[in-house]
Design goal:
Blueprint lengths: L1 H17 L12 H16 L3 E8 L5 E7 L7 E9 L2 E6 L1 H21 L3 E6 L18 H7 L5 E8 H4 L4 H13 L5 E8 L1 H18 L5 H6 L5 E7 L4 E8 L1
Parallel strand pairs: 6-7
Antiparallel strand pairs: 1-2, 2-3, 3-4, 5-6, 7-8, 8-9
Helix pairs in contact: 3-6
Length: 251
């Protein structure tokens, strides 16, 4: 009998150490059930198949996940699920914001690449909204649709320029940005431009890559790295006034 009890104790310890998915992982669901729940909710919302890259739980009971559409697993976005009681849950995500942010980044890159060889760009659109703003598929997730659906949302753009390429002529940057915003209708933006060494730009690129893979979205990753560097120039773009405005410089 003692031997049998010892065997059960060892099994229980092994299950605890390995995080066996046969037990409740979050809100009464096992680990695999939780992942299936997220994929089901996203499919109902956007009409396509998704995979869960990773999940984590907060001390306040929220569930966080990094997810990808099966059609493009290089797209990794955030999901947050809140539980308000038995069978009462709310799933929030920034899939639409991620797609629109990639489109915005490509537009910026297309113009800057004509003038600069070495730079890093990141874009962040606020997501995880608790309301339906009317975009229900990847095909509908365009900049034009986003502007109509979210006219007051302000995107953040960080651009790190190579200071050796730009030199002391910071006015070039405003010319580049003006060309972009004259040629495209884009969401309201706050644009922060930094002038740094090539190794800092390489670090920015690495942070962008690792942050997407690890967390599913960028939340000020470049800004954390660049905030101590001077000078940096601050601009704003307002789609309603179709203009680029200089807001100040930190030196």
């Amino acid at each position: 009998m003692k031997k049998l009890a010892a065997i059960f104790l060892v099994i229980a310890m092994l299950l605890t150490l390995t995080g066996c998915t046969a037990f409740s992982y979050w809100d009464g669901m096992t680990y695999n059930q939780t992942r299936r729940y997220i994929c089901k909710e996203l499919k109902e919302k956007y009409g396509e198949e998704f995979t869960v890259v990773k999940t984590s739980k907060t001390g306040t009971g929220e569930l966080w996940a990094a997810c990808s559409p099966k059609s493009n697993e290089s797209f990794v976005f955030r999901v947050q699920v809140d539980a308000y009681g038995k069978h009462s849950r709310e799933l929030l995500d920034d899939y639409v914001e991620y797609i629109v942010g990639r489109e915005l980044k490509c537009i910026l890159d297309d113009t800057l690449s004509k003038y600069c060889n070495n730079y890093a760009i990141e874009v962040h659109l606020s997501g995880l909204h608790r309301y339906d703003f009317g975009i229900h598929s990847a095909n509908e997730a365009t900049i034009n649709n986003y502007i109509v659906a979210q006219p007051d949302e302000i995107s953040t753009v960080w651009i790190a320029f190579d200071k050796d390429e730009i030199g002391d002529d910071y006015g070039k940057v405003e010319e580049y940005l003006t060309e972009i915003f004259n040629n495209y209708t884009l969401p309201k933006c706050a644009i922060k431009c930094y002038f740094v060494s090539s190794d800092i730009i390489a670090q920015c690129e690495e942070r962008i890559k690792s942050n997407h893979i690890e967390y599913g979205s960028v939340v000020g990753s470049m800004e954390v790295l660049l905030s101590s560097h001077r000078p940096w120039y601050d601009y704003a773009y307002n789609v309603n006034e179709k203009g680029l405005f200089f807001r100040g410089v930190a030196d």
